[in-house]
Amino acid sequence: MATSIATETLDRMISTLEEMVTKKEIQMNQKITLEEILALMSTATIIMMEEGSLIEVDVPIKVVGDIHGQYEDMHKLFGIIGKVPDVKMIFLGDYIDRGPQSIETIVYLLCLKVKYPDRIFLLRGNHETPAVNRIYGFYNECILKYGVGLWWDFQSFFNRMPMAGLIAKRVLCMHGGLSPHLTSLDQIRQIKRPCEPLDRGLLIDLVWSDPTNKGDGWFYSPRGLSYSFGKGVLLAACKMLKIDLVIRAHQVVQDGYELMVGKKLITIFSAPNYAGQFNNAGAVVCIDEDLQITFQQLRVPPGPTCVRSCPEVACVPGQALILPQIKESACTPQLKTAKPKAEELKERVEDKKEENNEKAENKEAKMENNNKDAEKRNGGEKEEEKKTAENEENGKHRRNSENNEKNTEKNQVELVMEDLHLFSNGIFSNVYKGLLKKPQHRLIAVKKSWSDQSDHNPMEVQILTMLNRMHHKNIIKLLYKFSQEYPDQKICTALVFEFFPMNLHEVRERYGPLSILDIKLYTWQLFRGQAHLEKNNICHRDIKPQNLLVNHKSGMLKISDFGSSKVPFDIDAKSVMIFFFLAPQLIINILGYPTPRDIAAMRVTTKVLQNNDFLGDLIKHIDQNAFELLTQVLVYDPIDRLSGQRFLENSYFNELFDPQTKRNGQRIKILSKKDFECAIAGDEVLPESTITDTSEM
Q1: For the Protein kinase domain, which residue ranges apply (predicted)?
Q2: Which residues are paired to 315 by β-bridges?
Q3: What's the domain count of the chain?
Q4: Do the Cβ atoms of 269 and 256 come closer than 8 Å?
Q5: How far is Cα of residue 232 from the mean position of the Cα atoms in its chain?
Q6: Which of 15, 93, 386, 677 has a CA-to-CA distance to 321 between 20 and 30 Å?
Q7: CATH code for the domain of 663
Q8: If you write DSSP's letter for every residue of 683-697 in order, what string do you get?
Q9: Catalytic residue positions?
């Protein structure tokens, strides 16, 4: 990496990057060289290493949340809140990934940092780590524009970024949140850089943890990494750290900001209409000389559109920082979810008919021309016979097309949905809860995802359609599917599912440790569903508590979220697995593949499971039979691993099918002897599928 960057080069880079906002034809890699970016990073690294791991700044200042490569929106935000050096700013991380211009975003901010080091401060987010930005776009963007070497250089730079900020000694800022390991601000000051957040500890919590309103304590995070913390933890931390407020980013919030956990915490998110999916505002926190807090918002047109125009500006008044009454926005956005009406469905059917008729006519005309050309070339009776055969075949295709149209029209139904509201959001889709009023009356979950391809047929839809034919009671049931096209040619695919109120992770959080009977009940159903997927050659790839839907009242469990699933026909086995982060030497097979002896050495024993490496795990509370069952499951070699029917018929689960067994004072109604017999027979003939009754919710 170069040692420094010349002032004239820096000014030219800033000018070029600002010009790119209005002149779309300018390509960054044609105007700014790799060597110039490396020199910029080198200079910025020196500045940031001198600032310390905990940056201490004074007011007035503006706090900016996630940007995620939405470079044009960032400049629109600057048009509202002001620009550096006129305004002092602190950014809370996540400059890259998911948006179209991650490199432009981070390079522009680094240019400002080098030119005005005391007016802009940049913290590290969870996307400034290789395990994350290898997957969500930044890696591919680096390769496309400059080569993989730049990606590696950025990882080295990210390891040297500050981890948190302290404003006026009273407001603590970070990307993620608090940590159970944090008892003093000196712990952040003493973080030695370069450093890389791993899987646990203070570093990972600062960029990954989240607040929750579900309780007062610490909870395992539904993200599968770090923790969630409640109001009691926050209040205790504010007192212990001698601060008044925590400002963090990391989560999409509808207004761009949200007051949480007793108004002692603000979540700020600055990427409007995030990833074209969320219809959210972007916002910043403004803190003036008197520690008065206001919020400024940027809105872009709703819907999954990439058009960035006509921003709306909203300044939201606030109160003194030391007072708890911080006023929220007066303009609450309305969630708009399309309801397919009968008229729309009829129009779609008619449009589809016209499209199919036009295709059939074009095909006929093309065939006629081909036939005439063939007659001219060859002539004779053979060509006449060929023409007759082609006409017959064409008639067959036309009849098939007409039948398909009839089937399409027959399969169209009118869906009337009410009270749809955002229930949960993920990386690639949103889930809405609502009431289906027609053609049947029940609670539903509507999962929406977007694509640029008009003929897009997600693998999830293909898999669920196939599974629906078999009605397995431990697989979520797809009820309906519809699509909507937006003006920017993006296609929204909506999947309508039966609704389950909780997932297994939420059950664990709400009710605490599961009883042994519940563990058996949910485990048996999980393995039954997984055996059915394996039998049908489906690799789910993302089975975790958050994707296991549960009706805790009845004890029913269903495997859900097939968005990452694959049907591995001729696919290389490595591509079927989820890629998160692998050591380079493993990726290129320097170490080779494990031998049978290596595999045998990895076999789990009850002695290993019972040692102190599993601190605080429930595994210590299960009986010897459960230990022995677990050791047979945790086997590397799939030939020796206990799974499928052999697992389901294990005597450990016998009490589930004993009519005398009581769960919460009642017999287990969701499982019967017939279920057991079907399961160990491979579910060749499935019993009647259990439909979730809305009255149970």
Answers
A1: 417-653
A2: 296
A3: 4
A4: yes
A5: 28
A6: 93
A7: 1.10.510.10
A8: SSSPPPPPPPPGGG-
A9: 127
